[in-house]
Give the backbone structure.
Amino acid sequence: MSDIQKPVPAPPVINYILGFLCVGLAWGFTTPFIRKAAQTHTPPPHPILESAGVRHSWIKRTVLGAAFGVLDLLKNWKYALPLAINLTGSIWFFLLIGQAELSLTVPITNTLAFLFTVVGEWYVERKVISRDTWIGMTLSLCGIALCVQSKL
């Protein structure tokens, strides 16, 4: 028996492609949902914020106001669910950068996040995608193609 270990084969390219797409989708497509939920959110009243001890203390008012604001948003499933998906995209990203080429992973995932954000805005807010945006999306994809081609 020999002590020489066989090299671990690299994962198939499709795994990286799916990983890039998942990160881009999680980061980009969820952003319009998070934005819409934050814009339409109406926080409930918090009587403690109106108490004399809190009103007269800038620190208490600021800290409690921020804490209630965060907790109120997280209780709203229309905000919390897309946020959780968005944050899982960050976990997938960190798993990807441990395996994939860093100089490709970052531009690819960020470009896909941009593209999915545009599509998400069209879906959530019914925004019209302008000609200039289409050109920008096309140029972004061409830039990524050039980056990938340079690594081959």
Notes: The chain is about 75% helix and 0% strand. Residues 13-40 form the longest helix (28 residues). The two ends are 37 Å apart (CA to CA).
